[in-house]
Amino acid sequence: MRDTSRRSVLTGMAAVIGGATAARAQHTNHGPMYERLNQAGRVDEPEAAKTQRVYDSPAPKAEKPGKWVDRAPLPLPRSEMAWATALGGKLHLVGGYGEQKVDRPYHHVYDPAADKWTDAAPLPLGANHVGVATIDRWLFAMGGFLGQNHTPHDQCFVYRGDSWHPIAKLPRACGAMSCIGFEDKIHCIGGAIGVGFEARRSVDWHLVYDPAMNAWSERAPLPTARDHTGIVAVGDRIHIIGGRVDSFHTNSNLHHTWESKEDRWRMRNPLPTARSGHGSVVVRNQIFCMGGEGTNKVFGQNEAYDVAADKWWQYAPMTTPRHGLGAVALGDTIYVAGGGPVMGGGFQSAVHEAFMLDG
Description:
The structure is a single chain. This protein is mainly β. It has one domain (13-356): Neuraminidase, CATH 2.120.10.80. It contains 2 helices and 34 strands. Strands 4-34-32-31 form a 4-stranded antiparallel sheet, with no helix packed on it. A 4-stranded antiparallel sheet has the order 5-6-7-8, with no helix packed on it.
């Protein structure tokens, strides 16, 4: 693949941070890219982002680190939306925080060929941390929170054409689940429950929706309850990576696979940087995990797991570290849109960047 980036991974942390700062300045071509949750109006990158972003990874460096480039920003700053998903060669972002509310029904669609965003039919029930996944030409939206990262609901919907239709409710209300289409069913794993933030706690649930039957069943639960995890499927396994146990103050580096033929979980090589609210996608048989947050930290790390070798590598870190973002692989390119530039939900961003491997 051609080298289309404006920078390479530089040696030494000072050089890395300096290079990222220079790249961030290019966003000014689009005007301010951020907005506060408690006040209307676009603003520049918050000062706290400069002290919270981190890039260092304990994983060995990949020989070809890859490159990040700017793409068309989101129509408006957003974060804590559904973990993004691909449908028909496009990126779909559903729900989340935006314009001073946490229960938005937004549905934005990105076309990489045109480098353009369009609006699609909004969710029937606005929420944040909605679980999304696809099977064939159908997009599913499962649960989510009505409050700020708390108070889940049990409503589920399927998107066909350009309209949403209700389907069987979740057996139990839940938000921040990791969802994926796998073997013609939707697997919703982990998540959090609790009415009000003080009652919030992670769960180990493994709920499975069968579209053919419009019904739910259960599989072996996660070995450790957690939410805000990464999820991908490779072959006959589902990978659950990282996440948090109740709070980002207790982030996890656990990496488990669900073995579909045995209905059991196995431990895999842990995520080098424990984090939650990160993106996870598969490109060239590697699982890339980028972004996320922790205590007073917003991660720029872009670490990839080589499935065949059971080994992690570090690639070029994100130009703009964020959490609660939308990440999708379309072909060999990873698109990362929106997200929070500082810990928590106080700021949203319209930043949209793409990662490309070298060669």
